[in-house]
């Protein structure tokens, strides 16, 4: 029987899989998608996360792909106001982090299993059985839900996801090309009338990650992300003639969600990353907090499997990471509020959420 089953192959699930495989724990990684995605999503690694990836043997590749010292170029009402550095982290697309971790995991003899969405979960005194969408069942000693904010594992366990969603604070986001726009800066345009648009060059690609407050209909509903809407938002806020956005490879939207699982362990099953906590994106801590969850769980689970009192040892994961998650939610809400206040002032931008 496999020692550990992981649902989800994002940065959290892949980090956990590498941690366990390196420690001699047999592991399977199940992913509901049919193939890897190529969406920028979370786009930065903190020094703490880079330390984890270095220990796993994946840091060299992500460092070679990513960019350090990117300049935030800020504009207000169409005028260039100020430049600041983006901090001491590494700018890199989430899909590129996942690619590096998948490569490392393959080197450890583990392949991600696609088209393997978990739809049922039971556990007993000796292990966990996961039922997959195609009718197959998979047995393991323990399991981890690393399957995102809409986690099937969390829902199957019946663990409350406590907090709130603010539908009034929304953002459209996507990956687009912007021929003619300098790739040497993270461009941040804001206006005195409110709103703004950000275009961040993603390393190793020809695309920018675009973030903007959406357009709204007369009834107050926000328009979904689209290339046409992105162009109108760019023209309104950036006021740079001749730039035509093109070739969108990812279109999405985001709203403020501040939620945390009531617990991160249910018997032999654990939650990590967005499956356990979601929060504002200010500061870019989402992917990084999931990596830290995974590092903690991997260390504790591997030790428990070889120790004299595994059940007691496993309690350490929730004791360590649940308070960290609570602090993270408070911290990111405060960062978000700082950013929303800062962008109303000429020369300020998202760096207000990085401190």
Automatic annotation (TrEMBL):
Keywords, alphabetical: FAD, Flavoprotein, Monooxygenase, Oxidoreductase
Pfam families reported in the protein's UniProt record: FAD_binding_3
Keyword Metal-binding: no
Top-level taxonomic group: Bacteria
Keyword Glycoprotein tagged: no
InterPro entries: FAD-bd, FAD/NAD-bd_sf, RIFMO-like
PANTHER family: BINDING MONOOXYGENASE, PUTATIVE (JCVI)-RELATED, TRK SYSTEM POTASSIUM UPTAKE PROTEIN
Full protein name: FAD-dependent monooxygenase
Source species: Streptomyces sp. NBC_00049
């Amino acid at each position: 029987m496999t020692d550990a089953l992981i649902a989800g192959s994002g940065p959290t699930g892949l980090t956990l899989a590498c941690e366990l495989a390196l420690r001699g724990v047999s592991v399977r990684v199940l992913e509901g998608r049919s193939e890897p995605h190529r969406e920028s999503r979370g786009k930065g690694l903190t020094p703490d996360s880079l330390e984890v990836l270095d220990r796993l043997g994946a840091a060299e590749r992500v460092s070679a792909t990513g960019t350090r010292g990117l300049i935030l170029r800020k504009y207000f009402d169409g005028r260039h106001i100020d430049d600041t550095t983006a901090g001491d982290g590494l700018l890199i697309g989430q899909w590129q982090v996942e690619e590096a971790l998948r490569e490392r995991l393959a080197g450890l003899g583990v392949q991600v299993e696609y088209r393997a969405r978990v739809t049922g979960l039971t556990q007993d005194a000796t292990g966990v059985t996961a039922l997959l969408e195609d009718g197959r069942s998979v047995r393991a000693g323990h399991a981890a839900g690393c399957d995102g904010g809409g986690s099937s594992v969390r829902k199957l366990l019946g663990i409350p996801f406590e907090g709130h969603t603010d539908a009034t604070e929304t953002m459209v986001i996507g990956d687009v090309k912007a021929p003619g726009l300098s790739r040497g800066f993270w461009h941040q345009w804001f206006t005195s009338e409110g709103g703004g648009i950000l275009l961040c060059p993603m390393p190793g690609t020809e695309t920018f990650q675009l973030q903007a407050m959406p357009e709204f209909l007369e009834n107050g509903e926000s328009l979904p992300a689209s290339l046409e809407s992105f162009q109108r938002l760019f023209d309104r806020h950036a006021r740079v003639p001749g730039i035509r956005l093109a070739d969108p490879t990812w279109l999405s939207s985001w709203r403020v969600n501040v939620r945390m699982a009531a617990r991160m362990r249910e018997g032999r099953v654990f939650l990590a990353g967005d499956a356990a906590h979601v929060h504002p994106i200010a500061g870019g801590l989402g992917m990084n907090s999931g990596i830290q969850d995974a590092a903690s769980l991997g260390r504790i689970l591997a030790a428990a499997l070889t120790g004299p009192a595994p059940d007691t040892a496993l309690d350490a994961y929730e004791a360590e990471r649940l308070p960290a998650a609570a602090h993270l939610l408070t911290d990111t809400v405060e960062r978000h509020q700082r950013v929303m206040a800062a962008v109303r002032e000429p020369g300020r931008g998202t760096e207000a959420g990085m401190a």
